[in-house]
Amino acid sequence: MAIALDYDLFARIAELGSISAAAQKMGISVPMASKRLARLESRLGVRLINRSTRRLVLTGAGQRFRDDVVAIIDAVHHAEERLIGATQGLSGPIRISAPTSFGRLHLAPYLRRFIDRHPQVDIDINLTDEMVDLFHLGVDVAVRIAPIDAAPLDTCVLAPNHRILCAAPDYLARRGMPATLKDLAQHQTLAAQGQTPWRLSGPDGAVTFDPRPQVRTNSSEVVRELALAGMGIALRSLWDVTADLTSGRLVRVLDRYEGVTDVQIHAAWPRNPNLPRRVTAFIDYLRDLYQPVPPWVAA
Question: What is the DSSP string of 123-189?
Answer without folding.
Answer: EEEEE-SS---HHHHT-SEEEEEE----SSEEEEEEEE--EEEEE-HHHHHHH----SGGGGGGS-E
